[in-house]
Amino acid sequence: MSELPAEIGVFGGSGFYSFLQDVREVKVDTPYGPPSDRIALAELAGRRVAFLPRHGKDHQLPPHRIPYRANLWAMRELGVTRVIGPCAAGSLQPGVCPGDLVIADQFADRTWGRADTYFEGPVTVHPSLADPYCSELRSLASRAGREQGFRVHDSGTVVVIQGPRFSTRAESRWFASLGWQVINMTQYPEVVLARELNLCYVNLSLITDYDAGVEGRPEVKAVTAEEVLRVFRANNERLRAVLASLVGWIPSARGCECSRTVARDRFAE
């Protein structure tokens, strides 16, 4: 094959690519088992894009059972160098409201037991993750979000919890007191594995709810999965438009440091 089938990867449900034409689904085998589902290949804004539902098409995989290593490896095998990771997320601060879009620049990991590296020995690598999200893609994502009418927060820390349960009020107040803005269940280790493979990664956190312990919001009720899905679906069309704009604006050549996170000779091809 003279040209690999994809250059940009998107993690998201079938709603993100159901409006595209000429979608071709492929099965990709990896050293880490099968990805969450078959990968859909299509053209968007003149670019070759690979779409993968991280939870599986039927949402059958809870956050701690997602095969993150297989998902990222499969994207790389298809030729992807940039990954877009939209997700539903809760707010930890009164000023970050449902319907807002947060372009995360930091994460805090509160998960456990997830396979979170490709380097388990005998090759050992200690990648620098001071700035885990691609600065080039973050700038473009903020611009794309505003173009579609979102209230955009250009930065924010997402705390990643194990799931599948939501936080207690005490946990939520703790996270908020540390100044973190967003809470989610899937950003770790997705972003870390992308950087281990020298892929650019950007997160678009669509705020669907206030987390249970947010101060200054006395009307806040305990979050439910049904409410999260309702708000996410209500914003799905605009979010897809954001993705289309972002994909079209991504430059062919990378001007960031992401491709140099890990020396290429460290990879076991």
Report on this model:
- The protein has 269 residues and is of the alpha/beta class.
- It has a single domain (8-263), classed as Rossmann fold (3-Layer(aba) Sandwich), CATH 3.40.50.1580.
- Helix content is 25%, strand content 21%.
- The chain is built from 6 helices and 11 strands.
- The chain has helices spanning 68-77, 135-147, 169-177, 187-196, 225-234, 236-249; strands at residues 8-11, 24-26, 39-44, 47-52, 82-91, 101-102, 106-110, 152-153, 157-161, 182-184, 200-210.
- Strands 1, 2, 3, 4, 5, 6, 7, 8, 9, 10 and 11 form an 11-stranded mixed β-sheet that branches.
- A hairpin with a 2-residue loop joins strand 3 (39-44) and strand 4 (47-52).
- It is globular and about 55 Å long.
- The protein starts with 7 loop residues before the first strand and ends in a 20-residue tail after the last helix.
